[in-house]
Design brief:
The structure holds 2 protein chains of 2 kinds.
Chain A (H helix, E strand, L loop, with lengths): L1 E14 L8 H8 L8 E14 L10 H16 L2 E2 L13 H15 L4 E8 L5 E4 L8
Parallel strand pairs in A: 1-3
Antiparallel strand pairs in A: 1-2, 2-4, 4-5
Chain B lengths: L1 E13 L8 H8 L8 E13 L11 H16 L2 E2 H4 L2 H4 L4 H13 L6 E10 L2 E5 L4
Parallel strand pairs in B: 1-3
Antiparallel strand pairs in B: 1-2, 2-4, 4-5
The chains are: A alpha+beta, B alpha+beta.
Amino acid sequence: MIAHLTRRYRFSASHRLHSAEMSAAENQATYGKCNNPHGHGHNYTLEVTVSGPVDPATGMVCNLVDLDGFVEREVLSRYDLQNLNTVQEFAKLVPTTENLSVEIFEILQRGFQMAHLDGVRLEETMMNSFEYVGPAEPRK
Amino acid sequence: MVYLTRKAEFSASHYYHNPDFTPEENRRIFGKCNNPNGHGHNYTLEVTVKGEVDPRSGFVVDLKQLKEIMHREVLDAMDHRFLNKEVPEFFTQIPTTENLAIAVWQRLDTKLQQAKLHRVRVYETPDLFVDFYGEE
């Protein structure tokens, strides 16, 4: 019996969307207000979905304490109340929520071993959300 | 193919305990959820069915019928109950959100006539939910 478990987390961070490969005018045209040199912030909501057989002894796909601990240690403490442009992976990569979704997926994919990672969904605002389920898997 | 989702809410209490574990193991694995007096949640249930739209009615499923089945099979049995003590599935299984989603699926799957059950989603809190799609 495969079940899919989703947990929601919150963090707040600032960013500026700016590509070194574009001229100032192109950056302005592409990113608009998000290109403001001083940056701006969001309250992000992260959804992490994992799946696997339900362990008959515990009734669980994975222990939430393990998932919460991993996300807290590897994701939230990395991004919460930070300027994303100053975080290593965004030194050259534009910290759009698309790219942030992929980075978070990859952190989980590399390090979280307790269940299969289905995907991540990241809400930048109540109006925008982004999902990443890995390079090839279709979305359920 | 059209997918239709109906929501419902119920409130219930539960606790997590495996009689095969020692008291120490139960506490370590289940933490605060192991308190034998139980604790409660406001659950939200989302039932998604799928099917072709009937050309005469324009419906995938008669919503009134779906609502009645959800009430009869799930809410009447679980709303305002202590799941471990009052719902037979949980006399032997631990009433985690995972097992709850599976139990709801099993209660509904055979009862639906027109449309096919696609997904059962159970929210234990707004920040935790489980999806079950039947045997995968």
